[in-house]
Amino acid sequence: MTRTRLVVIAAASVAVVLVAIAAVFVGTRAGGGEWEPPQATGEAVDASLASYYEQDLEWTDCGDAQCARVTVPIDYEDATGDTLELAVKVYPAGDSDASRAVFVNPGGPGGSALDFADSMSTQFGSSVLDAYDVVGVDPRGVGESTPLECLSDAGFDEFTQTDPDPDDPAEVTALRESLTDLGTACQENSGELAAHVSTEEAARDMDVVRALLGQDEFDWFGASYGTVLGATYANLFPDTVGRMVLDGAVDPLEDSIEASLGQATGFQRAFDAYAAYCVDQGDCPIGSSIEEARTTVADLLEQLDSTPMPTGVGRELTEGQAFYGLALPLYSEQTWDVLTQALQQAVVDGDGTTMLLLSDAYFSRDTDGSYAGNIGQVIYAINCLDESEQPDLETVRDALPRFEQASPVFGRSLGWGALGCTDWPIRPSNPQEPVPAEGAAPIVVVGTTRDPATPYESAVKLADQLSSGVLLTREGDGHTAYNSGNQCIDDTIDAYLVDGTVPENDTTCEE
What we know:
alpha/beta, Rossmann fold, 10-stranded mixed sheet, two-stranded antiparallel ribbon, 18 helices, 14 strands, globular, disordered N terminus
């Protein structure tokens, strides 16, 4: 699992965030068929869970979709205890005779699956939209489901300004305390829920919703961290796995150091690809070569560490915010020109306005200081409940040279980010386990060779770990593969979802 201060979100979600900035995400939704409220499967389950699997749902119109709320136990080990609610959204299939439903999740952890369903109801191929209802279920603690409440908006502002690359013991202490304070705030403001937002529990929630939607099989399209959620489901319920796509795969067994090091490698690859593009365009504000671009941006971050940059919105740009502002546009080639604009302002004009705007967009921060979601906070709560072992301070310090070698731009910040769960005050009760998913139907694992956030190597590892994993490779840039402009990828995934056509293992789609 990724244990850094970096939020791992799917490319589709990034595009939604940036639509007002770059106007790059456009789509039209295929018309849905008539909606018939589903009947629960009525399958036999443990007696303590029967009431959850048999509950009656009240469906309401919500735009072009149908929405409902599902009740599940906070703690599956105490199913008679307190409960929470899951928000569910269903876009009906274009073919009114279609009977399958594909659940979608954008990752994070902490991204809204309801928003992702809105997106995928325009971005899936027409054959998929005809064949499937598109279902979004905000995971426990996320979005419109019972949310995990932690820091106030002002408190989270302060959190994002914490120096991600501490230079002295005082800054190291401040970094560690910021994480402890976040976890403590989750405990104080969310009570029992703060200890029960693990991936395993979210996967169990998905099975309840599957049954209530009358689906004997669980069809899934998960991006980024959504690949971990999907793989965890498959491992818990292999017999109900239908057609499952894991795009932008994460290796759930990587420890904090290796996961963070993988991201450092991935983001440096992405930055170098962007830098080459910028140089080729001419008048690149960060230099005339990749090496010069690396040095310029590293110097910019060092400068911001000691002297935050003024902006046109009454706030200053700190090193931490510039880190996120640099990372966001690297998720998609479509936003590289936005990064050039931000760097032109910052490096040449000494103006951090656009870079700060990108950092705010990363966390869905509005101009009034409010946040549209809690992804920046819940990511820690989920990751830290999944992780059974955390590195100590000495281990992280010793690993920093490896991070600097992997990424002159992002390495140290991502290295220190490996401390993300070391000081988390809530101990995990459902740590992540291997996910062989023995007996599951073929699962398509998709990796992009220059993916910044979920490096390609992670997809290879996850496909190997799954007993029925099939690796599909996209040669290219950006986070996740589907709907990235590679027709081979789109056709292969659409054929798998619609017809059940499993691609040959190690199939590669070039640009």
